[in-house]
Amino acid sequence: MEGIVYALIPMVAWGSIGFVSNKIGGRPNQQTFGMTLGALLFALVVWILVRPEMTPILWGVGIIGGMLWSMGQYGQFQAMQYMGVSVANPLSSGAQLVFGSLIGAIVFGEWTKSIQFILGSIALLLLVIGFYFTSKQDSHKVVIEKGSDFGKGFRALTSSTIGYLSYAILFNNIMHFDALAVILPMAVGMVLGALLFMKFHIQLEAVVIKNALVGIMWGIGNIFMLLAAAKAGLAIAFSFSQLGVIISIIGGILFLGETKTKKEIGWLSIGIICFVAGAILLGVVKSF
């Protein structure tokens, strides 16, 4: 029970990042920079308290991983502005799950049993169906959201998915570090990546400082993800963390005023059900 409670915290923390940051405001590069500053502050506090052993290779790989993560987050913030949080977040998470699972199964041989291929294939199919319904738009919708551009949104999601997948593969499949040790080098890389998107024009505006709160939320989610995995196992921790999509969808509609027609609400509900079922099933696959 304790592990499940721990798993709920990253679900809420990570699921809230999109709508909290967009409620604060700012351009995607300002949101990314502010978030990375908060992550760096959190990482410094963790380092002071834990004092893990640090090696040159951990620093090098950690910084590269953090820069890849920044690419993913910057693209996600762009997609949110073009498509809305309630659409961009499930599409982003779903793309990472589908392509990450396929790469893990095909390239790194993570699926070795017949049951894993059967359940994994069903899970991926559910995620693809979830993709379709969460992004489906009513052709009779009268109100067009300001700044809405699905073409640009999908292009941003593509670069975001590449960044996130590269970061995940680097840390999960190629290199394996203690999460409490690598969090500081990674945070440094995150800030460097954000500065690249700002072309090193550092401006500590109010909106940037406020977005640091989002980085602290990200760090809290990371810590409790570790605790949940230790108490309840990786399968449960992983599955619950993906349910944050529900938080982001509800938050986008309630707090950002993203409008949905009755048809879109119905399609979104189907998409959420398929997405959640697929994510949980992938967690089951990981438990074998």
TrEMBL record:
Q: Could you name the domain of life of the organism this protein comes from?
A: Bacteria
Keyword Plastid tagged: no
Q: Which family does it belong to?
A: Belongs to the GRP transporter (TC 2.A.7.5) family.
Q: Which organism is it from?
A: Streptococcus zhangguiae
As recorded in UniProt, coiled-coil segments are none
Put simply, this protein is called EamA family transporter
Instruction: State the Gene Ontology terms under molecular function.
Output: carbohydrate transmembrane transporter activity
GO cellular component, as recorded: plasma membrane
Which compartment or compartments is the protein found in?
Cell membrane
List, alphabetically, the InterPro entries matched: EmrE-like, Sugar_transport
